[in-house]
Amino acid sequence: MKKPTLLAVNNYNYPRGGAEVVFLEQNRLFAREGWDVVPFCMTHPDNLASPYSDYFVDEIEFGSNYSLLESIARVPKVIYSREAQKKLNRLIDATQPDACQLHNIYHHISPSILSTLRSRGIPTVMTLHDLKLACPSYKMLASDGICERCKGGKLRNVIKHRCVKNSLALSTVVYLESSLHRMLGTYDKCVDTFIVPSEFFKTKLTEWGVDPAKMVHVPNFVDANAFEPGENAGDYFLYFGRLAPEKGVGTLLQAAAKAGVKLKLVGTGPEDEALKAAAATLSIDVEFCGYQTGADLHNIVREARAVVLPSEWYENGPMSVLESYALGTPVLGADVGGIPEMIRDGETGGIFPSEDVDTLAQVLADYAALDDAVVREHGRTAREWVSDAYSSARHFEHLQDVFSNLGVGLGRGPTVDSGTVQ
Question: What is the pLDDT, as a whole number, of residue 347?
């Protein structure tokens, strides 16, 4: 009997960020449940190997050093890619997928493929890793902080405030893309169900006019069995992730200095040098650990007293929270976006006001003074919670319900050790 086939679509086919981690882990989950998984992505030198890479669309990277002619040639592809439609049709002919799950497709593959999926009669769900359906630049973030200026169809604000890489040209392209697909009703007509990892995002998108009846809250997941939890209450606080302005790491530096606690920062990004310069002016015990991954990252996380997420923008369902919990490490998080949904205050960590240096400093000082036995108990509670509420089994059950409501029998295929992820 032919195994069911999932067409899995995302711009990148390597662990570039949180959305890509979810994409790849979900593909592995389907494969473990006996499905064939067929990726459709953009060509990229860092991509995982795939027998389907010949079907991938040509690479487009915003901000790359293209010549003027190369840049002009790529603009139509960003807005409405005929290349993506043609290659996707060929892939569908070759693989005959039973269902499709979309992740991030805009700016690279382009939303043009949605009409292709609809014309081919393939039930389609889309995981919303960000706020693109509402905000053209997808972050609801401007140079002056969280931004909702485009609400009510005022999309020209993305050009006015140069919301994409502070570039007038790129912001104009994104404006044209969003305006066209709103006019065509591309997402509304062609996507059957939107999967939203946080209740906050569901509420926010509803406020901006997305039909709540088409959205289903399905949290992200982590396979806790793949993580070895720590047993010690460490002596340092940890941030790991991208070093970007919206992540609030500058606020964390100030708070850590004021609290007199030890801090480690793991990651790279556009704020790297600025944060190092800021740290040099503060009386602070901080270690910049650079980019870390795999076992090295896990060791740093499991030995931390707590992971801190000082975000200053609308986070969705950060994987860093789930991974920290799986490693038995509590999380202290800002009260913004979907973060508060993922923290049980006083049980798996704590919550503090976003952008508030003084309160964060007090939270850090209090947590540093907390009895080690209490910290360890927070870590154990976090591990138990993530193993249950955010498990891969629970996630797959949610997906079964979503696809079943679309008439797709997402029952488990013949379960295998690794499945087919190509």
Answer: 98
- Characterize 155-164 residue by residue with b for buried, 16 or more Cβ atoms within 10 angstroms of its Cβ, and e for exposed: bebbbebbbb
**C-alpha to C-alpha distance for 138 and 129, rounded to whole angstroms:** 9
| Interacting residues of 204 by C-beta distance below 8 A, sequence separation 6+ | 131, 134, 140, 314
CB 175 within 8 A of CB 136: yes
Query: Among the CATH numbers 3.40.640.10, 3.40.50.2000, 3.40.30.10, 3.40.1440.10, which is that of 5-139+179-221+391-421?
Result: 3.40.50.2000
Q: How far is CA 297 from the centre of its chain?
A: 18
pLDDT tens string 88-141: 999 999 999 999 999 999 878 989 999 999 999 999 999 999 999 999 999 999
Angle between helices 319-326 and 372-389 (to 10 degrees): 120
Task: Name the nearest CA neighbour of 346 among 319, 306, 386, 315.
Answer: 306
Q: Give pLDDT, residue 81.
A: 86
Architecture of domain 224-389: 3-Layer(aba) Sandwich (3.40)
Angle 231-237-239 from CA coordinates, rounded to 5°: 110
Which of left, alpha, beta for 197 (phi over 0: left; psi -120 to 50: alpha)? Answer: alpha
Question: What is the pTM for the complete model shown?
Answer: 0.89
Residues 6+ apart with CB under 8 A from 135: 147, 148, 150, 158
Other beta carbons within 10 Å of 165 = 12
Whether the CA torsion 41, 59, 241, 231 is positive or negative: it is positive
Return the closest-CA partner of residue 333 out of 268, 260, 239. 239
Kindly state the percentage of the chain with pLDDT values over 90.
79
Are 141 and 43 contacting, i.e. CB atoms less than 8 angstroms apart?
no
The tokens for 199 are 């209740």
| CA 86 from centroid of its chain's CA atoms | 28
